[in-house]
Write a structure and sequence with these properties.
mainly alpha; single chain; globular
Length: 276
């Protein structure tokens, strides 16, 4: 074989190796849990659904905080800063978004209540659609409005209990304990949420994987928020002014939507592959 033939055979050999490598990757990917996860995410329109949930959370949460800040004698926005994990500088910027003196004008209060109610109902309905698609259940639409209202009251009760728990937490050991308690509460809440929104047609054993995955992702988001969102709030405030903080809120709410959807999808994958 001539030197020219040897050189020309090199590209062919490289192409063959690349083709074999691609086939090996495809064979590993085919019928894997990753492929199934992406299939579930496509089924629930992951990007669109998380964006919609994030926007609905912003739509409902900010008017609600404005309402509470207007009626209460204590600052409610500090709870938002705590949940996001903001430092002192970030929390100071967030305080500038909300009024510090209570007011009792009827029209703004009624408007905030209506906007909050519509936003919260939209959030619960969007989350319900995710669970219905992953667990193969029919959508009941507005007939489930009483369930949405009950869900909201349960969530508010948990938020109040969690806020009271946080006031008694001090030191590293207390923070670890709080993280464990938060994990258990979030896991139990989402397990109940899935069963409740699906009318009890799914067993506790079937909802456990999604609830566990959601709780774990929730903790990871909380850890990442503490390191990431304080600089983000400060930078957005410097770049866009006070309204820039709203962009940071929207990002955080979209990530929450991603936690809910991805946690449910991971649980569905584990549930489907468990018999194998």
């Amino acid at each position: 074989m001539s030197h020219h033939d040897g050189v020309s055979s090199l590209p062919k050999a490289a192409v063959e190796r690349a083709r074999h490598g691609a086939d090996a990757i495809h064979s590993r990917y085919a019928d894997s849990w990753i492929e199934e996860l992406f299939a579930h995410l496509r089924a629930v329109d992951f990007v669109d659904r998380t964006t919609v949930i994030g926007a609905e959370l912003l739509w409902s949460a900010l008017p609600f905080v404005l309402l509470l800040s207007s009626l209460a004698n204590e600052r409610v926005d500090d709870e938002i800063s705590r949940h996001i994990g903001l430092n002192a500088q970030g929390a100071h910027i967030v305080r500038g978004l909300f009024r510090s003196h209570p007011a009792h004008d009827l029209v703004p209060i009624a408007t905030a209540l209506l906007i909050t109610f519509a936003g919260v109902v939209s959030v619960v309905q969007s989350v319900q659609v995710v669970y219905e698609r992953l667990y193969g259940r029919d959508h009941h639409g507005w007939r489930d409005l009483p369930r949405y209202i009950v869900w909201v009251f349960v969530l508010l009760a948990l938020l109040v209990a969690e806020a009271n728990l946080n006031t008694s937490v001090h030191g590293t050991a207390g923070e670890i304990l709080q993280a464990l308690v938060t994990f258990v509460i979030v896991c139990a809440f989402f397990a109940w949420t899935i069963r409740f929104l699906l009318h009890g047609h799914v067993s506790w054993r079937a909802v456990a994987p999604s609830a566990l995955a959601t709780a774990l992702l929730w903790l990871l988001l909380a850890i990442a928020s503490s390191a990431y969102f304080s600089p983000m709030v400060v930078d957005d405030s410097k770049t866009y002014g006070t309204i820039g903080v709203v962009f940071s809120f929207l990002t955080w709410f979209i990530l929450i939507g991603g936690v809910v959807v991805l946690g449910a999808a991971l649980g569905a994958v584990w549930l489907n592959r468990r018999p194998r």
